[in-house]
Structures are given as C-alpha cells and as structure tokens.
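Appendix B, record 7
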Amino acid sequence: MGAAGFCTVCGESPSIYFRRYSGERLCARCFCSSIVERVRRTISKYDLLRYDDRIVVGVSGGKDSLSLLKILHRIEQDFPRARLYAVTIDEGIEGYRSECARIAEEFSSSLGIPFASLSFEALFGFSLSEVVESGAAEKIGVQPCTICGVLRRKALVIAARRLGATVIATAHTLDDIVQTYLLNLLKGEGNIKPVGLRREGGGAVPRVAPFRLTPQREVALYAYLQGIPFQTITCPYTHTSMRDRVRSFLNWYSANRPEALYSLLNNFERLILRVGYGGERVCEVCGEPSSRKVCRACELEQRIKDALGA
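Structure tokens (predicted):
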C-alpha cells in the first residue's frame, strides 16, 4: 500500500498505510482511530443519526457491515438512549448465505447487540435461488442482483417496522454510492435521489450510510486490523451484475486519480440538489412511500410470483 517510515499522526509507530488522497502515513492504531472518527464526522456533517434513534443495522455477514456494526456500537455508547439492532436478510442463496448469517449472528452476539434474521421465503414465498434456477428471473428479464437489491431493501424496511426502528443504517461505502449514482445515470433514471442521506417525511423509515465518505479499501483494512471475520464464500451471482463492471472501471480510474471518488460524489450530489428530485406518494400495495403508483419492490414481487406460477 505504499507505506514507509513512521506514522505522520503519532510520529511514534511504523506506518502501515499511505493515504494517497491526503498524503498521510498511518500506523495501525491511528488508521483505525481515523476510520471511527470519520464515521463520527460523517454522521455529524449530514445529520444521519439522532441521540435517541432506534437503529437497525443491515448486516450481511461481510466485512463492511460487521465493521459498521462494531463502529456504531462504539459510537452509540456515548448515547445511552440510542438502541442498536442487527438484522440479516436471508435471500436463500444456496451455499452462500448460511455462512454469512452464522458470522453475522455470532459477531452481533459478541457485541451484545440483539440480532434478527428474515428470509425471502418467509416474507415473499420464494428464495432467490428458486427464482434463478427455475428460469423465472430470465423470463421476466431481471438480473439476480436486481431482484436481491430491491427485495432486500423491502425486507429491511419490514424488519425495521417490526422492531419500531427510527432509521436503517447500511454499510454502503464511498465506492458503493458513487457506483449507484453512475449506474442510475447509465440506466437513464429520471428521478435520482441522494443515497445514504437521511430523508424524513412521508412515513418512510430513513436509510443512512455512515461509510459514505469512507473508501471501501479502507473499510477492508479496518476489518483486517480489527480481526473482524471475512466470509470465505463469494455470492455466485456477482458476475452477472452491471455494478461489477462499473466497480471495475471506478477501481481503475481511482487508482490513477486518488481523489476521483470524492470528486464524483460531490459533483453527483451537487447536480441532484440543483436539479431536484420528484416527491413521493404511497405505494398502493404495501403503503410505503414511493415515487410510483406501485413501488418497484411490490411490482417485482408480483412479477416473480406470476412467473413461478404461484
């Protein structure tokens, strides 16, 4: 990672990481402290969390979500009226999700955080593997990652409602958010909304991303240094995603321009705020706020059931 010499923060320990966009060389202790402090500053800058929030943290069992859970657990100790809940959504991906769910539950338990798991099968009547292997996904012309993403969001909202949560926190990093904005532009989306910022109103459970200013590679290093478990099995559907191609491009681009992701984030959000985005009404099926008559999740759920012959 280009580290050499001593930490430029404490000046005492050997550096293990060179932060190219800031010019800092950091030792392990100062690096981990900087990640926690950045999350604190991000929460404060964007007013993501309140002192008395009931926070559902979406934990997949991967390094990003477990790192977020650990950091929020540390931060929220300063706010005794706040509550944390860890929730895993089991999409029903054979040979993959079981390991992730086990890691998520064990890690949550080690922190003393209440843990819950909801499955696609219980909520929607089908698993993702069933939808893909039956040919239903191909029949309706939707990629597995799209189905997963849309229905996972709906499942997290259901979990949050059941737990009486006031906000959902997800582990989307700087990379993830820039990828989402770029994907929305490439798909010609006409109503692009800010990602990971707290938006109240309309009865929605707001979603926030405390890692929105933290590059993914730094979250990965934090997880490694903190001894956070890494899942060993990769999702079998990742290669089918357009996001995977966008991720590869942005990784290449930011390797040549270290500040690129921050510049893209600022420019995307400046454009969104300047142009504005449409207001939301209520989905006629589930009653959740939506910019459409029937929200994307309810529409997709019904199309899948029709394709499965349910």
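Remarks on this record: The mean pLDDT is 91. The first helix runs from residue 28 to 46.
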